[in-house]
Design a protein that fits this description.
Structural class: alpha/beta
Oligomer: single chain
Helix content: 25-40%
Pfam family, one: Aldo_ket_red
Low-confidence stretches: none
Shape: globular
InterPro entries: AKR, NAD(P)_OxRdtase_dom_sf, NADP_OxRdtase_dom
Domain NADP-dependent oxidoreductase: 20-273
Organism: Massilia mucilaginosa
Protein name: Aldo/keto reductase
Length: 287
């Protein structure tokens, strides 16, 4: 993958991935937007955001099809992350789901395959299925999503648990609960965290974040947008990958430029006052 001087994060397996990637939540749901979505992902690839996160859940496979079209002819530039539904997470279900995802993505392997969240299937069975897919070359690494510290400790103790490469969780300036225990533990384990909804979800929550006076003041000091400061705050942290979604060229370029913003100690103090770190343990935030 071309990095364009992009900061990188190293997974436990040794694979190196861009710290800033691209999300695809809500893509593949409207045929009228398909070409714009494909173009946005391709522009992101051009700019060094080669990590593309998707899931069989997104548009019930529609987002994976968009990704497949975007990476056609340039697979080596992309690091593809996809996720399996919990109800498909038994031995036979994981393999079948993975094959369907591979077909939609039009590729022979998924670089990182995640359990989307915990369900009724025992973790030991899912890990065993992931290991089998990895041995067959269908996936190169596997991990989890929406796992709190207790979930991670349980998973780590199982056969194959130490092969978990990454945990994807909700993390942004507003949702900082993981800083109390999950993030420090993950760093000690050399396990990156992938932050989804780095700018909050669309609508009122995002508007409240991006119109925060302190965030806007920091953005003004840097001559950039509030969204870029919120992304830069995540990207400055060791072992954290951010995956904002963008479906138009201007938004893609804005996200990429956030990786070049360097926040000062003064900036960080202002942001901590406006968005305080956790003072006690909190339940894992999820979307």
């Amino acid at each position: 993958m071309g990095s364009c001087d992009m900061k990188t994060v190293t997974m436990r397996s040794g694979s190196v991935i861009p710290a800033l990637g691209q999300g695809t939540w809500n893509m593949g749901e409207d045929p009228a937007r398909r070409q714009a979505e494909i173009g946005a992902l391709q522009l992101g690839l051009d700019l060094g955001m080669g990590l593309i996160d998707t899931a069989e859940m997104y548009g019930e496979g529609g987002a994976e099809q968009v990704v497949g079209a975007a990476i056609a002819g340039r697979r080596e530039q992309a690091f593809i992350v996809s996720k399996v539904y919990p109800h498909n997470a038994d031995r036979r279900g994981v393999r079948a789901a993975c094959e369907r995802s591979l077909q939609r993505l039009a590729t022979d392997r998924i670089d990182l395959y995640l359990l989307h969240w915990r369900g009724a299937v025992p973790l030991s069975e899912t890990l065993d299925a992931f290991d089998s897919l990895k041995k067959d070359g269908k996936i190169l690494d596997f991990g989890v999503s929406n796992f709190d510290l207790g979930d991670m400790l349980e998973a780590e103790a199982l056969p194959g648990g130490r092969a978990i490469a990454l945990n994807q969780v909700l993390f942004n300036l507003v949702k900082r609960g993981i800083e109390w225990d999950l993030l420090p533990w993950s760093r000690k384990q050399d396990m990156p965290l992938m932050a989804y909804s780095p700018l909050e979800s669309a609508g009122r929550e995002r508007a409240l974040l991006l119109t925060n006076p302190a965030l806007m003041a920091v953005a003004q000091r840097h001559g950039c947008t509030a969204a870029q400061i919120a992304l830069a705050w995540l990207l400055r942290q060791d072992g954290v990958v951010a995956i904002p979604k963008a479906a138009d060229p201007a938004h893609v370029r804005e996200n990429r430029a956030a990786a070049d913003v360097v926040l000062s100690a003064f900036d960080l103090e202002d942001l901590d006052r406006a968005f305080p770190p956790p003072a006690k343990r909190q339940a894992l935030a999820m979307r």
